[in-house]
Amino acid sequence: MLKRQDKLTIALLSTAHFVADAYSSFLLPLLPLLAARLGLTPARAGLLIPTMMVTSSLMQPVYGMISDRYLKRSMSVFGPLVAAVCLSSIGLAGSLPGLLALVIIGGMGIGAFHPQSAALVSRAGGAHRSTVMSIFSSAGTVGVAVGPILITTVVALYGLDRSYYTAVFGVIIWVLLLRYCPALGVGAEPGHERPLGQALRAVWGPLTLLYLAAVLRSAVHVSASTYLPFLLEGGGLRLTEIGWVLSGFIFFGGVGGLFGGALADRWGARRVSLLSLLISGPVLALAFASRGWPGYVLLAVGGTFLNVAVPINVVMAQRLVPGGASTVSALMMGFAWGAGALLAPLTGVLSGHIGFARALTAICVLPPVAAALLWQFPRDAATQPKKLFTDADPCRSAPSVSSVGHSSL
Asked: What is the pTM of this model?
């Protein structure tokens, strides 16, 4: 049984994860309004999302090293507050530099929160670590999905200049964290510090294939999340309706990630990853070419299949390098997601020539390309273990796929 303090830590940080990740999706549905106010082209507006991805995703390993050495609880406590203050204030931005500053600093708050909080939750979970980490991860996924609904509702009721009303949620969770969040201990995981260079060189081929596939999948997801509001606005939808459609796409993507692990444990990680990519591309292409409810349903289905492989690919990488799970997890999550986000503005440039519907449909070729890369990946360890493991690193030492949930960690 978990101690009362541990339960409080898990509940508090999971709630904070929900709140912090909700702010991370505020920018998406407001892009058309902000672009119109500041006179930005869709391509320039689309640069805001990758900019935030750099500070919230690509920089996470740096935040983790800083928190381990110097700040034992400050990043968990103040991260949501920084995100709340900055990202709830984007409606006040009167220039592109001002908007960029809010996005960059807000992204830093989100990114700084994740590594330290994940470590705290993991430590609090003890023998139930996998279960509590799935709760923590799921809370963030739901937060990302709820964010567009929350911000569009507030803006629709009070106007873009009052977007800062939503900061109250971050302030409340900051007060609770300041009072109850524990400090991160020192040297939490001894015995996992062996050199990784030799292990990484031994699997650089399949690891590169896996990484590139994850980047392409992330590029599709970020492009769709960024430019779907422009497509929906052109179709005559109101701001709140755009928020609901966008939230549905993100939410069902999270559902796909949560179920991906169980499917992979049953049918094999490589097989499920391939099928998810092969199905998601055509379904999303049909969604972007459709109008009304059929298009929204297809969008939810496509988003679900697109993200099924997110947790699976993390564990596939961990199985390649059992002694470097943290390193390859950071590669597959933060770095792959951030690199995919950097490709998203190309969709904005393309939309300026052929329109949003055709541009979004065009990028649906990327999931099949990612599947072609994974086709070259060694078969699942359950059927051909010798291709991935030596006697010193048996498959059974790797974590179960179902133990990894979808997350913006």
From this structure: 0.68
